[in-house]
Amino acid sequence: MKKYTLRQLFNDVHLWLGIASGLVLFVVCLTGTIYTFREEVEQLMAPEKYTVAVPTDAQPIATNTLIKQLEQELQGKVVSISIPADKASTYSIGVAPAAEAVGRKAAGGKGGGRPATYFVNPYTGQVVGTPESATSEFFGTVMRLHRWLLIEGNVGKIIVGASTIIFTLLVLTGLVLWFPVKRKNWKQGFRIKTNARWKRVNHDLHNTLGFYSSVLLLIMALTGLCWSFGWYRDGLGSVMGAEVFKGRKEKPMTIAATATTATPEEYLAQANQLLPYPGDLRLSLPTDDTTAVVAQKSKTGFFALAASDKVQLNKHSAEPLKVEKFADKPLNEQIVSLIKPLHVGNVYGTFSKILYFIACLVATSLPITGTLIWVNKLRKKSKPKKPTKYGAAPVAG
């Protein structure tokens, strides 16, 4: 009787966990692949909402004038304005209905819902569209399928979370199995033998591509669990020494109310002075007189890090109250604040998105190639042995 080795244990764990979770992982990985370039696809499908023709020698409308114009036209209160570094891009404006703005002010700045978003031509002040479209609806469905398999309640979230834990184990056991038994065969794990039979090609696709994408797949899995389980999110925060998704709970600073109010142009000038580099800038404008204005700025480019610097300004004087630069944060806080970009792939701009897209595509293929490997092994075991020179092949049973 052959001895049951540790490698066989890893092989069995990898096999049966893969079979048990294969369908769910296929759906989760496929939807993750599709969602990677959501922003780019939406812009491609409706370019008129995201880009504008820049008039010769023209300057964007003054922010103060633009806000007043939009508030009058849309019958609401502008609560945010996003100004991209690209001069040929539209502004994104958040507008709260007048009644809601009054309610938020009476409640001390706590709103009852999200403001509506409008895309605006900064040179004409024309509203050119909203984020709602058939494409955005499609990606909304893709995201719900990715997060909870379109199953309402916590059931879908738990299924996806459990499958993600299994996926982590599959990657780790797969790495163990990738290392050859004989050291002289180690080079085989780095390449796909395309001139071999399809069974060998399929095995190499599973083994080699899985190895090359393993690091990114581990990052996706370990960060994705933050959305599935509160205990995991809290545990990761304890290990890292920094709270995960802390920014969601942070509120602007409280200030003393005065009779005067600075203008959006003054906020922008102050933010650009404190953060003197080209980049996308977003202003959050409070509807009450006791909340600070928040300006967030981030760099853009093919390799741009998905991190922003934040400045809080006195609403009445535009004086800086607090400056938070990403580069000044401790390493643990930097890593934790990048949990979402690390999961969705835009942590280093378009460059990392491309890498994540390829890795997700590989992950989508792994349940398929792995199942084919298993089926081929079953067929090999069930195939009767050829007769030997001493007689017929032994009959099972």
From TrEMBL:
Keywords: Membrane, Transmembrane, Transmembrane helix
Bilayer-crossing regions: 12-37, 158-181, 209-232, 354-375
Matches recorded under Pfam families: PepSY_TM
InterPro entries, per the entry: PepSY-ass_TM
PANTHER family associated with the record: BLL7967 PROTEIN, IRON-REGULATED INNER MEMBRANE PROTEIN-RELATED
Name by which UniProt lists this protein: PepSY domain-containing protein
Organism whose genome encodes this protein: Pontibacter mangrovi
